Amino acid sequence: EWDLRTEINEGWMRRGVTMQDPSTVYLDATVELAQDVTLEPNVYIRGATRVGEGSVIAAGSTIVDSVVGRDCRVWASVIERSELEDGVTVGPFSHLRPGSYVATGAEVGNYAELKATILAARVKVGHHSYLGDTTVGEAANIGAGTITANYDGVAKHATSIGAGAFTGIGTLIVAPLTMGAKSKTGAGAVLLRDLPDGALAVGVPARIITPKE
Questions:
Q1: Is the pTM value of this prediction over 0.85?
Q2: Catalytic one among 95, 127, 128, 157?
Q3: What φ, ψ does residue 60 adopt, rounded to 5°?
Q4: Which of 32, 43, 141, 210 has an alpha carbon 20 to 30 Å from 67's alpha carbon atom?
């Protein structure tokens, strides 16, 4: 096994991949790496994973059956059966579970978890957040501690968060519901019903404040 791993790693380095410590990089033979990819120590890349040019897979990361675009950075995180477009940053200590898709320039912060979730371009997901069965529109900001309660004990339910929306720290979104474009929640809000475009919801349970005409 050591000889095979050494052969695989040396082959990729000859093709332009940088490995800071090849002895701690573990690559399946099915992995595809572009030129100028950098693999830091203690990296595991498994299955049918592809990593694009210029991306950095930083120390402590595991990627399984996933696609990582160009110029991405994944640090000390786990990505399973998911896809990152170009210029995405993940981590440290994030987890993308199967079925997640992160569009160009989006950021998934430390201790964030995505499950079957789609992030549009330039979305920011704050630390200590969980988004399950969720679609997030372009340039939305997901505050620290935001959680989508997607499971009611019987079935999973979806959440839609519109473009430019903003969730305050500690927001709890009880699916199924929709947050409209440029809508906002205050810190600690518990959202139980749909939020119109541009509206603000505050409190527990959240009451909706409609913008003045």
A1: yes
A2: 127
A3: 80, 15
A4: 141
pLDDT higher than 90, residue 191: yes
pLDDT in tens, 41-84: 999 999 999 999 999 999 999 999 999 999 999 999 999 999 99
Q: What are phi and psi of 3, to 5 degrees?
A: -65, -40
Q: In this structure, which amino acid lies at residue 72?
A: C
Distance CA 80, CA 102 (A): 13
Q: Residue 53 pairs with which residues in a beta bridge?
A: none
Convert 28-51 to b/e letters by CB count within 10 Å (16 or more is b): eeebebbeebbbbeebbbbeebbb
Q: Tell me if residue 127 is catalytic.
A: yes
